[in-house]
Design brief:
The protein has nine helices and eleven strands. It is an alpha/beta fold. The chain has a single domain, classed as Vaccinia Virus protein VP39 (Rossmann fold, 3-Layer(aba) Sandwich). Strands 4-7-6-5-8-9-11-10 form an eight-stranded mixed sheet, sandwiched between helices. Strands 1-2-3 form a three-stranded antiparallel sheet, with no helix packed on it. Helix 2 crosses helix 3 and helix 2 packs antiparallel against helix 8. It is globular, with a radius of gyration of 18 Å. The site of S-adenosylmethionine has 20 residues, from helix 1 and helix 5.
């Protein structure tokens, strides 16, 4: 485990930041809370005493299944992106390589020292790419799905700068003003209360920190619209997202439309 993560973590029980010590998992020096770190994932959700979260959409139930977690990167993600954003969206940027190029540039990965948070990292597609692009910086991958994180743990083994954490985007287990940049690909449509997640994103970003995400706008085909409805995927209007983020204090909102999807960036002043 990269020890640089210890000063950043906030204990979900006593809300103290920087009190965790590494000891077969983590132990909070303030309240004694022990956090399991077995299988390469620090489970800060389990210990919050809230039990297993109930998935509220069909999409999230899939995200918590082992099979989907295993086939997510190769099969599930490209199929859904094509269905919900249109064939042209992936082709326009050359598939994931192009998507990652946009995210890296939007995060200013080469110009900033980190640390970075890949929020709702799934099996770690972006986490690994960020870790490879910023080898000297700490990269935290966070997700609520244990299945996704277990797959991610197997895939980040070669990256010494990655730490995986299980937690809820509605209540991030980090101190205020922690991250230089936060990547949040394909996830805001899945949150029960996106506004609460945006407040948390704001809180954990440093002043000047960048928030980069992607989500779905209106699906270009009838099939895509139906799939989104069945899966419980909320679609965003970029103009509404801009207004929502600026109400919360974010500045310099920009977005790039890719078919029925878009990538956005905003800055905490
Ligand atoms: C469509 S996947 C995107 C994964 C990855 N970012 C990517 O683009 O490949 C959405 C992810 O959001 C996660 N997620 C959903 N609700 C969450 C929450 N409340 N807190 C943290 N992660 C959540 C899911 O478990 C899932 O892994």
């Amino acid at each position: 485990m990269d020890p640089h993560v210890l000063p950043l973590l906030r204990c979900p029980r006593c809300a103290t930041t920087g009190a965790f010590e590494a000891a077969r998992g983590l132990v909070c020096g303030r309240c004694g809370l022990a956090v399991d770190g077995a299988r390469g994932v620090y489970d800060l959700l389990d210990v919050a005493g809230r039990g297993e979260p109930a998935a509220t959409t069909a999409e999230q139930r899939f995200m918590e299944g082992e099979l989907v977690a295993r086939v997510y990167e190769r099969l599930w993600r490209p199929t859904f992106v094509r269905m919900l954003a249109g064939r042209g969206a992936g082709a326009a940027v050359g598939g994931f390589a192009g998507e990652m190029f946009i995210h890296k540039a939007a995060l200013s990965l080469d110009d900033r020292a980190g640390p970075w948070l890949d929020l709702s990292c799934g099996p770690g597609l972006f986490t690994r790419a960020i870790a490879a692009g910023a080898p000297g910086a700490l990269v935290v991958g966070l997700d609520i799905s244990r299945a996704m994180l277990e797959v991610a743990a197997g895939r980040v083994r070669g990256y010494t700068n990655v730490v995986l954490v299980r937690a809820d985007a509605h209540q991030l287990p980090f101190g205020d003003d922690t991250f230089e940049g936060l990547n949040n690909a394909g996830a805001i449509h899945a949150y029960d209360d996106a506004e609460q997640c945006f407040r948390e994103i704001w809180r954990v970003l440093r002043p000047g920190g960048l928030y980069v995400g992607s989500t779905f706008a209106e699906a270009p085909t009838l099939g895509g619209r139906l799939a989104a409805r069945v899966a419980g995927i909320r679609r965003y209007d970029p103009g509404e997202l801009r207004a929502q983020l600026s109400r919360l204090g974010f500045a310099e909102y920009e977005d790039l439309r890719l078919g029925g999807a878009f990538v956005f960036r905003a800055r905490k002043p």
